[in-house]
């Protein structure tokens, strides 16, 4: 049986360990690299004969960033790689933005060990795979639809970091954009979402979350 070469990238050692154990049970998977930051991952890609990268949406690493910025970099420079995106962020707007990048596979971390085999098989079959809990999140935002305009990828990335507790100045530094640009993108996203202050924005983002017991 021909094995598929896979890279795993996540900054949590326990998650890496769990994924490794899950993949080791599949005799058609060969793990060729494990990484805990985006800089080491990107600089190692040319040396590895990988076909799939299982990657955390939120990864440390100054040089290549994380989140949407990192995913777009990989798509641009390593278009042959299939991406399976893992995320702890259960904001459906962020998931929508990831899918808008034409990424065919996204899983929430809480169910990743169960969903990963299905996602990997979907690559072999050339099919998409969105985990059931991610689909429930998307259904919730669609059922609450009220004609609001879609967020851009950059706006969504700003909201992701804002929802995780980062200040505008910190987001600007992390995304290598000016404070003015980040502030403008945040305000634009707020207009699209119909909120007029930070508390309302955080409440809106929180209201879209589904309890982890669901």
From TrEMBL:
Residues 144-209 form the HTH luxR-type domain. It comes from the Bacteria. Pfam families: GerE, Response_reg. PROSITE patterns: HTH_LUXR_1 (PS00622), HTH_LUXR_2 (PS50043), RESPONSE_REGULATORY (PS50110). Keywords: DNA-binding, Phosphoprotein, Transcription, Transcription regulation, Two-component regulatory system. The keyword Transport does not apply. GO terms for molecular function: DNA binding. InterPro entries: CheY-like_superfamily, NreC/VraR/RcsB-like_REC, RcsB, Sig_transdc_resp-reg_C-effctor, Sig_transdc_resp-reg_receiver, Tscrpt_reg_LuxR_C, WalR-like, WH-like_DNA-bd_sf. Component of the Rcs signaling system, which controls transcription of numerous genes. RcsB is the response regulator that binds to regulatory DNA regions. Interacts with RcsD. Belongs to the RcsB family. This is Transcriptional regulatory protein RcsB. It comes from Hamiltonella defensa subsp. Acyrthosiphon pisum (strain 5AT). The gene is rcsB.
């Amino acid at each position: 049986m021909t094995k598929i070469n896979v890279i795993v990238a996540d900054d949590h050692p326990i998650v890496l360990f769990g994924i490794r154990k899950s993949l080791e049970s599949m005799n058609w998977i060969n793990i060729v690299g494990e990484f805990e930051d985006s800089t080491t991952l990107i600089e190692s890609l040319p040396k590895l004969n990988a076909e799939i990268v299982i990657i955390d949406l939120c990864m440390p690493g100054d040089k290549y960033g994380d989140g949407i910025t990192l995913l777009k970099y990989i798509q641009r420079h390593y278009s042959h790689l299939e991406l399976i995106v893992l995320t702890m962020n259960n904001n459906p707007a962020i998931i929508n933005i990831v899918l808008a990048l034409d990424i065919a596979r996204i899983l929430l971390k809480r169910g990743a060990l169960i969903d990963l085999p299905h996602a990997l098989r979907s690559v072999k079959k050339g099919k998409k795979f969105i985990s059931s809990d991610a689909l429930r999140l998307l259904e919730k935002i669609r059922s609450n639809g009220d004609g609001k305009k879609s967020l851009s990828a950059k706006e969504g990335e700003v909201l992701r970091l804002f929802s995780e507790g980062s200040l505008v100045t910190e987001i600007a530094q992390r995304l290598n954009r000016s404070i003015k640009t980040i502030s403008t993108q945040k305000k634009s996203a707020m207009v699209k979402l119909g909120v007029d202050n930070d508390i309302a924005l955080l409440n809106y983002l929180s209201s879209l979350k589904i309890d982890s017991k669901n």
